[in-house]
Fold these 2 entries.
Entry 1:
Amino acid sequence: DNEHGTNVLSIMASNEPNTFIGTAPMASYLLLRSENVQSEQIIEEYTWAAAAEFADSAGADIINSSLGYTTFDVEAQNHSYSELNGNTTPISKACSIAASKGILVVNSAGNEGNRNWKYLAVPADSHGILAVGAVNSSLQPTYFTSLGPSVDGRVKPETAALGANIPVVDGDGTIRLGAGTSFSAPVIAGIAACLWQAFPLASAKEIREAILESGSQFNAPDNSIGYGIPNMEKAYKLLLSEQTEGSCIEPLIHPNPFFNEIYI
């Protein structure tokens, strides 16, 4: 009854050579639905927490979460900017906990930048995650990408990717152009999975930090795209450098067996 999840999945998982290849086509995916598209109720934040717990129990390494909450059908449930500290709303509490358990959570920043709210949608305010803003093909922030910072002053969103005129696949297989931070988030989630595959012993925190340090504006983050658009080749080299510095090179000893002499 709604193709949003299919669109998001297609950006990561599609694998049609010469037609459409996603950012992590060889990854394994677990699809969990926590959103009721027919209404907006705060219970959906609790079902997100249940989905995250299920994902954790199944061994998920990365959660791509292309959703966000600000207002609800019942006005008394609405959030305020003062709650954007990563520890107040039910979904942000759950998201911060998931990140603390070693899961790399990638969440869309929200599409409120040109609306009255304009700020992040929860759980993009969570701690230890990658909240993802949107840029256009000119690598400029889109007009709709939600703005930070969090109420406690953290850089938000942390990173950004293409989120305007981005190809997505509908349920009937049709490829069309979409827009939204819902679609920039899976770009980051997919390439993060590929980066992690190259360094399987790295932690989620190390993968996250490498992505941030490779950002186009790491030294001057702002409130629209954070540390900027990541350069995954640079992130790869950062992790490779850390791995090399922290390792001991095994000596080559020959011949084996030896008799009169041994070479090291």
Entry 2:
Amino acid sequence: MKSRFRNIFLVFGIVAVVIMLFTFDVSYEELLNNLKRAGIYLPLVLLLWLVIYAINALSWYIIVRSGGKVSSLTFSKLYKFTVSGFAINYVTPVGLMGGEPYRIMELTPYVGVERATSSVILYVMMHIFSHFCLWLSAVVIYAVFYPVSWEMGIVLGLVTVFCLLLSILFVKGYRHGMAVACVHFGSKKPFLKKLENIDSQIALLHRQKKSTFYSALFLEYLARVVSCMEVWLILNVLTTNVSFVSCVLILAFSSLLANLLFFLPMQLGGREGGFALAVGGLSLSGAYGVYTALITRVRELFWIVIGLALMKIGNKK
């Protein structure tokens, strides 16, 4: 990627972080007290995301390598692009729309624009699909471990239908490609041929390299499950009566609400409300959800800064 484009991403990220710092929902004194209260659990949460990002990077690495080996592209490079890409996504309104162009531009010098685009699109599809898998898992877990009232039964039924319908759409996209369908809305486009090539690469992975397909999807789902450990670590600051199963439900239902508010940078407000509603639905204090969301925000800001800094380190000449 040319330096000027990388600098544009960097400046945008810095401006977004500054705005978020000045619009934090709590006073800095209260924030500092809460961070002190977290104690050893805060660095454990920060380190946990070293592992989660490594799983994400490995999933993407498998997809990229499925198109043929690239000797100059190492896993450490892809790990760097992964962290920086997620950092940009966190600060971009209409989430998952800023980090993807960055990843494509960084990967292009190694594998070419078509292969870079297809691998990023396919990875994003896997990343989103793993959300559906987590939400469906949460429906099953809740039905097994908790009494289901008729109101909650309706909610779980709607979530199930929503996830299944979108899963069918994504499976069709894997089989036939989605890039052309996303832009083919009328007249011919000069770049349509390249998009058809990208679609063919996406469909080829599903038809001929199913092991790669399912390995990447499993790793993304595993990253979701491991991220539930963050909620468990944070809640252990407040209570020891929360099981890991409950933390899976809290993360799943809070992420569902937050993703419905995808147009907000860092899903501001939606994340906090989602955590509060999720823990409330499990007969826990709503304050637990607010505290969990607060520590999660701090973790996100920490990794945003790391991701933005990595954008200027070790770049291909």
